[in-house]
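Cross-check.
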Amino acid sequence: MTNVIYLLAAEEAETLPLDGGNSILLPKTYDLVWSLVVFLIIFLLFWKYVLPKFQEVLAEREDRIKGGIERAESAQAQAKAALEKNNAQLAEARAEAAEIREAARQKGKEIEAEARANAEAESRRIVANGEKQLQASREQVIAELRNELGQNSITLAEELLGEELSDNTRRSNTIDSFLSQLDTVSARSATRK
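Predicted model, tokenized:
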């Protein structure tokens, strides 16, 4: 057996693997053919089964992305429209609030003017009533004072004269003359002041 190994080694020694002009970078032809056949089979299987699924998944993702972008753009457009609508409503509400405030101010001024007019009218009425009452009280006091003074003057005149004044006409004439003299005396004292 050792002879066979030596014989085979001697035969192979004559032809070394790199002696035939083969390159390290270029494999043998049979390796290239079988590698090409396996590559074509794998390529065809990949082309027939894997690539369509892969393209389907990519198309689905692309549709989802495009749909998502379209939905996002649509939502953004709707949000922008809603924002513009809300801004318009807000502007209308502010304008309406300004109108309401202005109307309230006007109404307040009207109410204030009306209340002031009512207060002034009430004040004038109260003053007029007070003046009427004062005038009535004054006239009443004057009438009472005249009556009292008349009685006092009659009593004094009776004491001075020593007789009783029984006649009403005489009494009233005496009272009237006394009061007229009293009025002239009071008018003189008022002009001296």
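Helices lie at 2-14, 29-161, 168-192. The chain has one domain: 28-183. Passed to J.P. for a second look.
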